[in-house]
Amino acid sequence: MVCHGYPLIGRLYELHEKICSLDSLNPCKDVDTLFTQLVLTCMPPTHNHIDVTTLCKKAQQMRSDLIRLGGEAEGLLESHFATILGSFDRPIEKLEIFPYYGNYLKLAQLEFTLLTQHCTHVPNKVAFVGSGPLPLSSIVLALNHLTTTSFHNYDMDPLANSKAARLISSDPDLSKRVLFHTCDVLKVTEELKEYDVVFLAALVGMDKEEKARAIEHLGRYMKSGAILMVRSAHGARVFLYPVVDVQSDLGGFEVLSVFHPKDEVINSVIVARKC
Known about the structure:
CATH superfamily: Vaccinia Virus protein VP39
Order of helices and strands: HHHHEHEHHEEHEEE
Shape: globular
CATH topology: Rossmann fold
Largest sheet: 7 strands, mixed
EC number: 2.5.1.43
Helix content: 40-55%
Keywords: S-adenosyl-L-methionine, Transferase
Radius of gyration: 18 Å
GO molecular function: nicotianamine synthase activity
Strand order of the largest sheet: 3-2-1-4-5-7-6
Number of domains: 1
Catalytic activity: 3 S-adenosyl-L-methionine = nicotianamine + 3 S-methyl-5'-thioadenosine + 3 H(+)
Protein name: Nicotianamine synthase
């Protein structure tokens, strides 16, 4: 098992230690700086050769911690900006104040392009699992790409959903097409058969078992022929987000394409069809 064979791992240990010593993960200069450094460390395609399965136990644990801490910080950042945006009369016109809005525009464009390669018609109903307080993927897709499709967003947190609903409430079109459901998707069964496409957010299922359970549930209840869009990670970006293994985690689905971005879009995208 390799631990210190990569200079990258040493750098990640340093950042992990600094992040763990923070008093809080709420957005502030120190938190923003450290997570920016973490992302920039993991981004270069030169790290794509890293095989996380060869890392020693200590490095594996550090990786799990970074994913969990990053997920928590991301949730707090989104909640913070959802509150700010919610204070405007027309939040939808101010989305660019979110610092990573440009990334969402690129990710939505990428996912739409991949979807159109495998979906012959415009989907009527789409589900987004794990939408959070700032559901930019749904909003950007609904505004720019799937302009007649209805989006059903699922999140377990009622406060996240109320903040999210506030963002679109002043827009007559989006408020009819973008809907929010407060529930655990593992308890959603028959409704899943209504969707032509289901998006699974990167941070639904923070570890391998949880992620596999979510995908297995979707595989059981989605309608035959429906498309599943799964976000994953590749190379050193696996220290930022959980990985979906196309060989072992997508039983019941036919994998149609896998795309690993090399730019500031961090997530890989897997497109699969329910068998």
